[in-house]
Amino acid sequence: MQLLTVRHITSYRYKQPVAFGEHRMMLRPRDSYDQKLLEVRLDITPEPASLRWLHDVFGNCVAIARFSGRSTDLRFDSTIRLDHSPSNAVEFQIEDYASTYPFSYGSEESPDLLRSIERQYLDPDRDIDRWARQFLRRQGPTGTRELLAAMTLAIKERFTYVSRPEFGTQDPVETLKLGSGSCRDFAVLMMEAVRSLGLAARFVSGYLYVPEDGSSGRVGGGATHAWLQVYIPGAGWLELDPTNGVVGNRDLIRVAVVRDARNAVPLSGTWTGFPSDFLGMDVTVSVTSDAPAEEPTSPEAVEARRSGGVS
Known about the structure:
By secondary structure, the chain is α+β, with helices and mostly antiparallel strands. 19% of the residues lie in helices and 38% in strands. The chain has 6 helices and 16 strands. A hairpin with a 4-residue loop joins strand 12 and strand 13 (246-247). Helix 2 packs across helix 5 and helix 3 packs across helix 6.
C-alpha cells in the first residue's frame, strides 16, 4: 500500500478580459481495486457558472465546466489523494493457452477486443510490423510475458526520451525513425507494435510517482504521463510503461483509459478574444508519497526473480 497525493495546476493568462467557452477535464483517477480514491478536490478560478460530471464511452470520469463573464486569468487546481496498491509483474496469472505467442482470444472476449486490436496509424512499408517481430523467437513459440517485457525494455534502452510540450503524438513510424519521443509517443509506438501481432492494446493517461531522491531513475514526472495496457487472458489488462521499462502498475496512477490517444486530453476548452490576448499557459504537476515506496518492478527485475537472482 502506498498513499499518494497528486496536485495538478493549469493556469492561463490573457492581456485583457476574455470570455471562456466550455472546458472539459479528465483529472479524476479511475477508482479500482489497486487505486482507491481517498480525497478529490477541484478548484476553478473564476468559479464556473456550472460544473457537471459524466462517464465517457470508455468509463472515464469527465468534468465539464461552463463560464459566464470575462477574466484575464483562468486556473484549474486539482488535488487527489489515493491509496495505491502496486502489483508485482511476476505474480500475473496467464491462461495456459495464452502463456506463449501466438495465441487467439476466446470467442467470448473477441467481440469486445476487436476495436482495440485495430491499427490506428498507416504503416505502408511495414516498419512497425518488422520492428515488432524482432521480439519473436525464430523457432518455436515465444513466451507472452517475455515478449511484452522485452519490447517494453527495448523502447526504454534504445530510444531517447524527450519532453514535448506540443499537443498530440508523433506518428509511430516517425518515432521509430527518429529514435526519440515523449512518453505518449512511446506508448503509441508500442500499442501499434503489439496490435500488429494481433494483441489488444489501450492508451493510458495519468500520473507517475518519482521519488524525490531520484533513486528510481524514472523519467516523465512533473507532468501528466502516458503508458499502455495490453489484454492477456488470465491477467486482464496488463500495464506497461515503455518510457521507464516497467511492467505492472508500480507508481502509475491511471486517469483515462482509451482506444486512441486523442481521446485522453487532460484539459481542453475554448475562449473568445483576439489571438494576441493569449499570454501563456503554465502547468505544474507534483506527485508525493506519504509512505516509502517498495522496490520497482522492471523487466530486468522480473527476469532476475524468475531465474532466482532476486529474492
